[in-house]
Amino acid sequence: MSLISFILPAPSKAETPTITYSQGQYLVQAPDWSRITWDNLPPVQQPGYLSIPQNLISLFGYDPSRSWSAGQKVDSVVMLGDADDAFKMSSLSLKSISSIASNNNKLTLNDFGLMQWQTPASLVKAIPSLGNLSLQKVPPIAALLSRNRVLSGGNISQILRSNPEAANLPLGKLDLSKYSLNSIPGLTSTSLGKFKSWQQSYINQVPGLNQVPFDKMPQPINSGVRVVGIASVVLGTSERGDARVGNNYFISGSVVRGDKTVPTACAAGKECSYLEMGDFSGSEGTLYGKRWASGSSQQVKGGYGFLAAVNSGKEPTGRLVYGSGFKVALTGVNESFGTADFGLFFRICARPPFMQKTCTPYFIGPVPWLGVKENGLVIVGSGQ
């Protein structure tokens, strides 16, 4: 497993749909999750790649390897398996997606990316009713089998039992643009998680999925606004970690198994720019005086399981503000203007059969996010 390490650039300002959230005299432009989708997230700012050894691919049951470029859209970098625990996208079907985000009616099997590696056997497993049909009722399977000189006789299940080699031919051998989604009865009403290796489909390979707002996901995003602090002061790169300022002074840190943020102090003597927090309850509040360290200054331990070794096991310090789908990191501060910039970081996850989930550190990013000004509100979330 290897990966290009990165230095965080100053992200461009995010054009993110917002709503105004207020608490007393304070205002913040909070994300409007009813208008934010995978499609309109800002692009990834740094390139990278992940290369998985063959023995792990066999263990996972699919290949989560990939590479991406700076400026690439998030929906073409993140696979379904990476964020399914956060949003439960695998429980959606093309039909349920189209009820939320309207689809093009002329879509073909070629537009549904995971069809490339489906086989007649995997389709019958995903859609058991197919097995009772004749070949003539399912043109793509009929075309695939006829190309391999399989004679029709009986229903599809009987034919596949008699021809186990042909049963495992990938549909990608066909020109799938010739077949509509309806050419496979029951396809559009079958949940994504039923299909073989659904985890390795990119989000933009599922028609309409990148148009589903995050608050309409089967497991809607956590808005994070139940825990909000005040941005008291930002301090720049001349700041250094202090051995007397321990973990309990910070709200930024590592994400550990169970997907919880564990606050982590800056290393003594190392660069440590940060945002210092205030609390609505004054000095008695739990956020008063706490620090959110910059991920540009501090890399922390991240990930768990097999994939934790990726990126040397490091991720930018930060917080799970909106749940585990992505980590929010402070990417830069400007003392002169009293501003702090943030970015989102994504990760790669897999759940091998009969084993615990394994995830890389959050290292895909940054995706520019909403910044804050001194004396403005900061959405902190619960950290999980």
Outline:
The protein is built from seven helices and 18 strands. It has helices spanning 54-60, 84-87, 94-100, 120-126, 139-147, 156-162, 164-167, and strands at 18-23, 26-31, 48-50, 66-68, 228-235, 253-256, 260-263, 274-278, 291-293, 299-301, 314-316, 327-334, 339-346, 349-350, 358-359, 364-368, 372-373, 377-379.
The main pleated sheet reads as: 4 strands, antiparallel
Give the SSE order as H and E letters: EEEHEHHHHHHEEEEEEEEEEEEEE
Coarse morphology:
elongated
Oligomerization status of the protein chains: single chain
| Number of separate strands | 18
Mean pLDDT: 91
How far do the termini sit from each other? 27 Å
Q: Into which percent range does the helicity of residues fall? A: 10-25%
User: Which secondary-structure class do the elements indicate?
Assistant: alpha+beta
Q: Count of helices?
A: 7
What ranges have pLDDT less than 50 throughout 5 or more consecutive residues? 1-14
Q: What portion of residues belong to β-strands?
A: 15-25%
Taking all Cα atoms into account, the compactness measure Rg is: 24 Å
| Largest sheet: spatial strand order | 9-8-5-18
Give an account of the 3D structure.
- By secondary structure, this protein is an alpha+beta fold.
- 12% of the residues lie in helices and 20% in strands.
- A four-stranded antiparallel β-sheet has the order 9-8-5-18, with no helix packed on it.
- A hairpin with a 3-residue loop joins β6 (253-256) and β7 (260-263).
